[in-house]
Amino acid sequence: MSEKDSAQASPGAAGLPYPRAMDEGRSRNMRANRRAGTKPEVQLRSQLHRLGYRYRKDHRLDLPTGVRVRPDIVFTRRKVAIFVDGCFWHVCPQHGREPTRNEWYWSRKLRRNVERDRLADQALADAGWQVVRIWEHEDLRSAVSRVRAAVEHAFDDAASV
After folding, report:
1. pTM (2 d.p.)
2. Cα 121–chain centre separation
3. CA-to-CA distance for 104 and 63, rounded, in angstroms?
């Protein structure tokens, strides 16, 4: 029986059948992955809060084009959306790697993640939002500096209107 045939019968969100886990430990590990509240995201939020920044977390934005986006950190008045992307899930050019097991499933899924990211970036930009994407491996000081620059730049633009 091929890997494809051994997939579970229930389809995933994209209509593809989920592949069977190699073992219970790996299955438990994958279930532990969170959509929001990851360690790098929490560290960034904590540091921004310490510096006096107030924001919304995991806030859904319904854009005029019909696209729905859920950035990790949102400065609504300044129209700045921050995403903290995981290296595996968003195919980091530095740390991302091709899956070696069930590649028929994972390669397609990861490619869709990247396409969705690009669509979200474009839809946000078209709606007048500034997007900052931070990789999970990025130095916290650097990430905070990039967010502060984006927020202050947005403030300067709003003040000049």
Report:
1. 0.76
2. 11
3. 32
16: which DSSP letter?
P
Beta strands at 56-57 and 73-75: parallel, antiparallel or unpaired: antiparallel
> Do residues 127 and 81 touch, judged by C-beta distance below 8 A?
no
Q: What kind and span of H or E run contains 73?
A: strand 73-75
Question: Using one digit for the tens of pLDDT, what is the confidence trace for 20-77?
Answer: 656 666 555 555 565 566 888 999 999 999 999 999 998 999 999 999 999 999 999 9
Residue whose tokens read 């969100």: 13
* DSSP per residue, 120-148: HHHHHHHTT-EEEEEETTS-HHHHHHHHH
- d(Cα 31, Cα 44) in Å, to the nearest integer? 23
User: Which residue do the tokens 């500096």 mark?
Assistant: 145
Per DSSP, helices labelled H in 18-77 are 24-31, 39-50
